[in-house]
Amino acid sequence: MTVPAFGLGTFRLKDQAVIDSVRDALDVGYRAIDTAQIYGNEAEVGLAIAESSVPRDDIYLTSKIWISEFKHDALLASLRTSLDKLRTDRLDLTLIHWPSPDDAVPMEEYLGALAEAKVQGLTKEIGISNFTIAQTRRAIGILGAGEIATNQVEIHPYLQNRLLVPFLQEQGIHITAYMSLAYGEVIKDPVIQAIAGRHQASAAQVALAWALQQDFAVIPSSTKRANLASNLEAASLRLTEEDLAQIAKLDRGHRLANPEGIAPAWD
């Protein structure tokens, strides 16, 4: 699979803010952009990419299907609408954003439709997001582990997902970590700040490097060009075993993405 290690997340970014963020990210060297139908910014992301000097073929573009579009025909139609908004003829990766709450739509139906979208050339790769161990097992049974490009889940030093992560690694399913900075909470942590001081790095770089050294992909967001450039430099930061051991102790099961009525029963 070809999911890039470093990309730009666009959650919570709207209108001109997301246009500027995508434009600046591409300008400073990002080549992967992550959006979703529910973010309400696909059109703006598409505009920023279209106006960029970076060729579309050099950009790895991800979007996610929302839970209201899980019926077979609705999923395919919604994906085509996303492509129109994004001004492209295909995505590089399409994810199921959340498992269908209470299995309102059978997993076989929406994953089957997603697989069909790949066959039709609407997306190069497919994957899942916010799937638990049990749900991922079901997905593997439907698609095969080799067809699941990634499981995109919340992971940061305060939520290290120590049951799900080894399971996905054993299955050969790539992990994409979102909310890597926990909305900025972890960069205020004194342990993270002390590690950053030792490496002459930023706290954000430390949190991102921690994820990258575990072979997770990361998709941090920012509206500031300087922060976008600084975050990208985390790829060259190498933490020591002592650093990693200290960060391991910060895990407190602090989950931020847990929408009522949508979130599954977490592992």
Automatic annotation (TrEMBL):
The protein's GO terms of the molecular function aspect are: methylglyoxal reductase (NADPH) (acetol producing) activity
GO BP terms = methylglyoxal catabolic process
Q: What is its EC number?
A: 1.1.1.346
The enzyme's first-digit EC class, named in words, is: oxidoreductase
Catalysed transformations (reactions): hydroxyacetone + NADP(+) = methylglyoxal + NADPH + H(+)
- Where the record annotates domain NADP-dependent oxidoreductase, the positions are 7-251
From the UniProt record, list the coiled-coil ranges.
none
Binding, substrate: H97
Active site at: Y39
> PROSITE patterns in the record, alphabetically?
ALDOKETO_REDUCTASE_1, ALDOKETO_REDUCTASE_2
- Looking at the keywords, is NADP present? yes
Record-linked Gene3D superfamilies: NADP-dependent oxidoreductase domain (3.20.20.100)
Q: Which UniProt keywords apply?
A: NADP, Oxidoreductase
Q: Which Pfam families match?
A: Aldo_ket_red
Site description Lowers pKa of active site Tyr, residues in chain: K64
NCBIfam families per record: PRK11172.1
Q: Provide the family line.
A: Belongs to the aldo/keto reductase family.
Q: What is this protein called?
A: 2,5-didehydrogluconate reductase DkgB
Instruction: Record the organism.
Output: Stenotrophomonas tumulicola
